Amino acid sequence: MRIPFVKMHGLGNDFVVIDERKSSFMLTCSQLTFIADRRYGIGCDQILSLGKPRLVGALASYRVFNADGGMAEHCGNGVRCIARYFEHRGELSSKNVLLEINDVPIPIKIEIDGTIGVDMGAPRFLPTEIPLNEVQEQTRYYVELCDLNLEYGAVSIGNPHAVISVEDVTKAPVESIGLGLQSCNRFPDKVNVGFMQVKDRNSINLRVYERGVGETLACGTGACAAVAIGRRWGALDDEVIVELPGGKLRVGWDGVDSIWMSGPATYVYEGTIEL
Fold this sequence. Notes:
This protein is of the alpha+beta class and about 280 residues long. About 15% of the residues lie in helices and about 40% in strands.
């Protein structure tokens, strides 16, 4: 079976886009992990599968698969790449685009400067919505991990995130703590772990250890999660530049409604792979 694909990235967070709107390839977990393998397959952090939309006005639906073959609930860099994919194919009749994931509408706007803005929805803090095994919602949670007493914030941006404040992201033990929080019983669906260094009220540095992938060069939902937690902790204003290893995202949140994220998305190449 020959599968056509497009390789794309958002700030180095890279994707294989597979368009299944006309016919589904019914890819198995082992086929997905083969595609994502950087030595034997194409290589990517996530695979984006496009399908027919069910919501009125939506251009397409999409699913997100991590490099380990598991499904993710959302992906901020990925959805920007999908918008760029349709722009590259000449399928956009407007700079305003509607996509859907899990029957949830995702409004997108292609800005004048070419960056892509995404309505990421309102952050959710209730433990049952994250999900997080805690009885009551709190702004800060605590856990003993890796011989450390860790303080973190927890939020869902369509997928679960834990955010830890650090003095210097370059010295943060990203892998050990990321793996530890993912494997502890606090997060039944595992969790993306963000390490946030607040530079001032309008800018942060961020590294993210993602479920099923490991540390990535950028994470769109992770950037939104960090700003949401930073705002809750009173450390950030409502417009923040998030600097990740792969580049910068702009995130805005008024503390009540949807979080907006904007940044670049890059078309790399297209081809086919034999499965």
